[in-house]
Each structure stands twice: as C-alpha cells, then as structure tokens.
Automatic annotation (TrEMBL):
One of its GO terms (molecular function) is oxidoreductase activity. Keywords: Flavoprotein, FMN, Oxidoreductase. This is FMN reductase. The keyword Flavoprotein applies. It comes from the Bacteria. Pfam families: FMN_red. Residues 9-151 form the NADPH-dependent FMN reductase-like domain.
Amino acid sequence: MTAAGTALRVAVVNGSPNRPSKTMGLVDVVLATLAEKMPIETSRIDVYELGPDFTQAVEREQVAPAVEAALRTAENADLLIAAIPVFRGSYPGIFKHFFDLVDQYALAGKLVLLAATGGGEHHALVLEHALRPLFGFFQALTVPVAIFATAADFDGTTLLNPRVHGRIEMALNDVADLLRTRAGGSAHPVDTIGIQEATLRT
C-alpha cells in the first residue's frame, strides 16, 4: 500500500524502438506536466531493451529476474502510461508481448493513460481501436482522454503543437479527478488507491 503523502508511482511502458523518439518526447511532456500537479515517482520500461530473455519467453515463469522486475513495476504502479508509435495500424508486437506476460488480474482497476505517435492524424484511431480494448481485457480504468501526436507536431523529438499540449492538460485533469474520486475527497488520494489495489489482488 502506498503511504499517505508519498509520490504517485508512475510507470511508463515505452513501445518505441528508437532512441531518442517522438513517442518519449510526448511522454516527457506528459510527465513534466503531471509533476506540476502532484509529486510523482517515475519508472520507465523500454520493451525493446529487455533483451532475449524477454523476447524468447512464452510464459511468465521463463523470464529472467530483470524482466520479472519490469513486469512487477508495471503491475504495481498507481498510474500506468502506455506509450507507442503506431506500427502498421496498431501497436508494435513487442509491446503487446510485454502485456502477454503481465498477470491477467494485476491491472484490474488501475489507471492507464494512453499515448501514441504516428505519421498522420488517420493513425489516431489506434488509441480507441487497439490500445483501449487491450486494457479493457485487463479490466483497467483507461483515462477517458487519450493523447496522440503526429510527426508534424514535433521539431525532432520536441513537442511543439499547442493543441497537443492542451490535450495533455485535459488528460491529466482527468487523472487528477479520478484520483480525487477514488480518495473520496481526502487530501491523500494515493493512499486510497493502494487500499483498492490491495483489495483487488486478494
């Protein structure tokens, strides 16, 4: 359980193979904006860097300790940020493989913020047609406002488009509202989240 008054545990699952990337440029703005609203503790999981012990695993029992630690980081977060570049109309297969190894019930009721980047606006449907159904399977609580940015919204990996910045604000206002709702209006919403997660896992 998260102690009252401590930072919100945020885990980013990054589905981009590139270093640096527009996807993480988008997430960096999300994290910086969130940090202005509340104290956060951030962990980042780069699925493309988990190695052959991850890519060759078929069952959870086959993964190496480092991969197990990454899976538990995602499962134990208060807020999960799922961030992908669109690949052939959907999420990258290696990103999906990570969630193939996540415990089926570990994300039940967990707040999940969806973020994606793509070459053009027509790729934005990946958020509703691919990512949201994936986390619906896990019974996670996906934040209503998802975030999408196109290549034209960036200068290199720096997000410039004010419209996307506004979308980020809207999404994080949703996050704050959901935290307050879960806390029942208390001053320390994270504590209540920890209680609810513990109840879900018993």
